[in-house]
Amino acid sequence: MEKLTKEIAERFECKYRVFERGTDPALVEKAYMEALEAGREAGFYPAIVSLEEYAIEWLKEVVDGQYDRNEIIKECGDNGKEILDERYEAYTEYVSEGEEDGFIGQEEEGETLDHFIGYRSFRDNTLEADTLLLEIPVQNPWEIIAYLPMGGWNECPDAQDMIAICKYWYEKYKAVPAVFTHDVMEFYAPYGINGVDSLEAAKEHYAFCMDRVEQGTRTYRISELAAGLKESTVWYFWWD
């Protein structure tokens, strides 16, 4: 384990495990699931953080900064749906009525995700970097964002909007923020879209992260994402 990894982990002031670069990612996912179950009684939610180069810079700012975690949690609003609605409207402002069907599409097949991928190396499918499994002492999963306040750049929602969206998604889908890199976030959604219409869910995902459709699908259509969400228990987001 690198010295910097240990220093960053300890600054979060919570229990943690370190999985070194090159480890089988399945071991991290197994440990996450065990921690998620244990946290129900112990009063914490786990989060996986990949310490790749740019994430280290982000996390050094987080742990060295003057973030009032309790204040961030206190200010969390119940406007997650409104934020997503506004973002979707803004992103589709220039889609005319005649183009809407083509933009949404009628795809019936899409990628199903049931394992975390954000911390995996594309070269050999091992851990890209040293990876932390944090046991974050919060009562509600959306409060994880107070400890890991990512966002606020490009089209990524800022931390305040993100925490409201995460609250809304937990209440609607029981989805919890689980994996973080500097530009990737993954949710664990054990109940999938929880009976919600898949196209409705996909529109929310698009509002949260346009790149999920525009760079993460073959057809660039929301219906392809919707088709994949029907059976997915992992939600993947990447902001370019």
Q: Can you describe this structure?
A:
The protein has 240 residues and is an alpha+beta fold. It contains 11 helices and 6 strands. It has one domain. The protein has a 6-stranded mixed β-sheet, with helices on both faces. Helix 5 crosses helix 8, helix 5 packs across helix 9 and helix 9 crosses helix 11. The two termini are 29 Å apart. The model has no long low-confidence stretch (mean pLDDT 92).
Keywords:
alpha+beta, 11 helices, 6 strands, 240 residues
List strands and helices in order, with pairings.
Layout: H1 3-11, E1 16-19, H2 25-42, E2 45-50, H3 53-64, H4 69-74, H5 80-91, H6 97-104, E3 131-136, H7 144-147, H8 159-173, E4 176-180, E5 184-188, H9 198-208, H10 211-214, H11 222-229, E6 234-238
Parallel strand pairs: 2-4
Antiparallel strand pairs: 1-3, 2-3, 4-5, 5-6
* SS field, number of helical segments: 11
Q: Give the rounded overall mean pLDDT.
A: 92
Estimate percent helicity. 40-55%
| Overall morphology | globular
Helix-strand pattern, N to C?
HEHEHHHHEHHEEHHHE
Short recap of the structure:
The protein has 240 residues and is of the alpha+beta class. It is 45% helix and 13% strand. It has helices at 3-11, 25-42, 53-64, 69-74, 80-91, 97-104, 144-147, 159-173, 198-208, 211-214, 222-229; strands at residues 16-19, 45-50, 131-136, 176-180, 184-188, 234-238.
